[in-house]
Specification:
alpha+beta, 2 domains, 6-stranded mixed beta barrel, two-stranded antiparallel ribbon, 7 helices, globular
């Protein structure tokens, strides 16, 4: 019996250890500091499918993708359709283009909020971002749903790595790069750091989403990626500098027509702002107006489903406008905290079983050694 008990104890302990390892691997990236100004994050990838955060009407939800090796995670169509001088060179590197209209048939829009006020650091550590790939503004790192940079630990694994844009060419020339950088053709850069904004959950269905890029030039309305809250970090001419906190599409629309003195003051030497035409509004959406805010301005589309789970904590999130539900499930890629109770129980049970088995085993051996032995 002691062998059976010992085996059970070992099995229980192994299960607890495996569960602990799995939970650690499932942990989404969480900054060392949960404020919006952080210096490090961990890629939210569990070896199966990436999970990233998104803002949905002010609520933080999860975008759940296919495994990173699946080619259906994203596509770029039509492929780099615009005519430019180094078209062939670019086509050999990437088919993805910012500034071109994508395929919007049977797809929903997803807005990528890019902290353009952080200048070229939105393109990764080669341009001044921190080592994790997060952009830097006034010597402070900005936590993002997706960082930037080839090989960056915070780059979203389901996204294209590189993208072409005529606007990128203008930015490069403003910083005296005339033949491309990092061995890339002119106008090809890493996909910039960004947060995700959506306006529907499509009932959790796995569907296609096209992109609308939003350049944000006012840091006061750029939300904390973890909490969705905004804080004033720059002087402003507005009575409420954070009023258009960008966690809803309505806020984006309002920001497109809201002028703030902070924009010109902060971005005076910013090549991203200059290349965009020095817009005085809080945000600039290339090729779009308020009335066409859902119009694609990149030829990239992605495939994912929405889950009402906070990807940073693994906790369930109540669907806006609905009663609390108990049937929501936490995807297998959620945080360590969700599995903690089972881990603790498994370890305790394993330790108890092993302790009991060893107690009886050594008690029997001790009793046997003390038995009376008749004289020879």
């Amino acid at each position: 019996m002691y062998k059976v008990g010992l085996a059970l104890g070992v099995v229980a302990l192994l299960l607890a250890s495996c569960q602990l390892a799995a939970a650690d691997m499932n942990t989404p990236y969480i900054a060392a500091n949960v404020s919006s100004l952080v210096s490090y994050a961990k890629v939210p990838y569990n070896g199966f499918a990436p999970v990233y955060a998104a803002f949905l009407n002010g609520t933080i939800v999860s975008e759940v993708y296919l495994p990173v090796t699946d080619p259906k995670n994203f596509s770029c169509s039509p492929r780099t359709p615009q005519v430019f001088q180094n078209e062939l060179a670019v086509a050999n590197i990437t088919w993805c283009e910012a500034g071109a209209k994508g395929n919007t048939i049977d797809a929903d829009p997803q807005w990528l909020e890019i902290p353009a006020f952080a200048g070229m650091t939105i393109f990764g550590s080669s341009f001044g971002a921190n080592q994790s790939g997060f952009p830097v503004f006034q010597n402070r790192s900005i936590m993002m749903h997706c960082g930037s940079g080839v090989g960056s630990p915070t780059m979203c694994l389901d996204h294209p790595t590189l993208m072409y844009s005529p606007l990128f060419t203008d930015m490069e020339r403003l910083i005296n790069i005339t033949n491309g950088t990092q061995g890339l053709p002119e106008g090809v850069l890493p996909v910039p750091s960004h947060d995700h904004l959506i306006i529907t959950d499509e009932n959790g269905q796995f569907i296609r989403w096209y992109l609308v890029n939003v350049l944000v030039f006012d840091p006061n309305i750029f939300p904390d990626a973890r909490t969705g809250k905004c804080a004033q970090i720059a002087n402003s001419s507005l009575q409420d500098p954070t009023l258009n906190c960008l966690v809803s599409l309505g806020a984006v629309a309002n920001a497109m027509t809201t002028n703030d003195s902070a924009v010109a003051a902060i971005n005076a030497n910013n090549p991203v702002w200059i290349a965009a035409g020095r817009p005085m509004t809080e945000v600039y959406v290339p090729n779009d107006t308020v009335s066409t805010l859902n119009q694609s301005n990149a030829n990239v589309d992605m495939n994912f489903s929405i889950q009402y789970v906070d990807p940073y904590t693994g906790t369930r999130v109540q669907k806006p406008g609905s009663a609390p539900q108990g049937s929501l499930t936490i995807p297998p890629t959620q945080a360590f905290s969700a599995a903690m109770p089972e881990i603790v129980i498994g370890i305790i049970v394993g330790v108890i079983i092993i302790s009991v088995v060893f107690h009886f085993y050594f008690s029997r051996r001790r009793d046997g050694s003390q038995q009376y032995q008749p004289p020879a």
